[in-house]
Request: fold
Amino acid sequence: DAKTTQPPSMDCAEGRAANLPCNHSTISGNEYVYWYRQIHSQGPQYIIHGLKNNETNEMASLIITEDRKSSTLILPHATLRDTAVYYCIVSPSGQNFVFGPGTRLSVLP
Amino acid sequence: GAGVSQSPSNKVTEKGKDVELRCDPISGHTALYWYRQSLGQGLEFLIYFQGNSAPDKSGLPSDRFSAERTGGSVSTLTIQRTQQEDSAVYLCASSLGRGTSGRWYEQFFGPGTRLTVL
Reply:
């Protein structure tokens, strides 16, 4: 299964774009990239997923490099409520998702 | 519609006692997952149910842990002879499983059960 690497923490000013990177250099051709986040004391929340093309929804944008070895989650206008741990996951060959340590994003006023 | 619910929200028990944690998934979701999260740690996969298939129990940490999913809906996670290291938040999630394209549908998580073993 492809593993992911994320920075342990990042800061972002409120109102600015938050760009969260993820490396998944061993990803295989049929594996999707998923992003979830976990706000303190809550269960994780799905954000977005993608395979090859860039994706956008009401929460975020996902930019996947052409070689698919890395991706970036973009929160275009971060708010204080976006402070959370963000998990980048590459879909496994089995059923179980591996939620690594993620990136702790702190949005600062 | 209703999301994933879990009960109890908090459980305090004494070492050596058995506990049962309940999960009510979203109606129509065929897949159900159990995870646990120790304080300040990431999620640890425990077990996965998909329809009528045999569950994936590869994440269960010991034979003290077991889970059932009755009628393809409600699930119960049972921990026998609890130990202090079992203290954690136990999270349940449900989803539509895996699509024909190979994509895994998003998981919807419940609020969790905080288990404290004294």
In short: The first strand of chain A starts at residue 9 and ends at 13. Strands of chain A lie at 9-13, 18-23, 33-38, 45-50, 55-56, 61-64, 70-75, 84-90, 103-108.
